[in-house]
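Dear H.,

Thanks for agreeing to be a second pair of eyes. The structure we're designing against is below in token form, covering all 100 positions.
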């Protein structure tokens, strides 16, 4: 039987994988994917606790987190496309937009 601890361990593993991806990768698309992995980890935790406690509040939070994640992905990818058109790279170390 799958218990709450199994879901929390999986969620923790997903979150740590996302953090490692954000800290070690230099490609902006991979960084965005790692951020999405961390958001999905939080969603899994919300759903697990919602199921464990027997209410739907956690699932309601998941709905709002997914809406914010979709907006973040749309705006983030639009910004990345604009940066790629100007700089011809998505390497975070080579993108110096704020420097003159």
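And this is the sequence the design step returned. I haven't edited it by hand at all.
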């Amino acid at each position: 039987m799958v218990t709450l601890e199994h879901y929390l361990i999986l969620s923790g593993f997903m979150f740590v994988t996302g953090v490692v991806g954000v800290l070690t990768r230099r490609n902006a698309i991979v960084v965005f994917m790692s951020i999405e992995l961390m958001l999905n980890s939080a969603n899994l935790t919300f759903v697990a606790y919602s199921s464990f406690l027997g209410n739907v509040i956690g699932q309601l939070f998941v709905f709002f987190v997914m809406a914010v994640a979709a907006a973040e992905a749309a705006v983030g990818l639009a910004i990345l496309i604009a940066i790629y058109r100007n700089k011809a790279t998505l390497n975070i170390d080579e993108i110096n937009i704020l420097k003159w």
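Two observations from my side: The chain has one domain: 4-94. The mean pLDDT is 93.

Warmly,
E.
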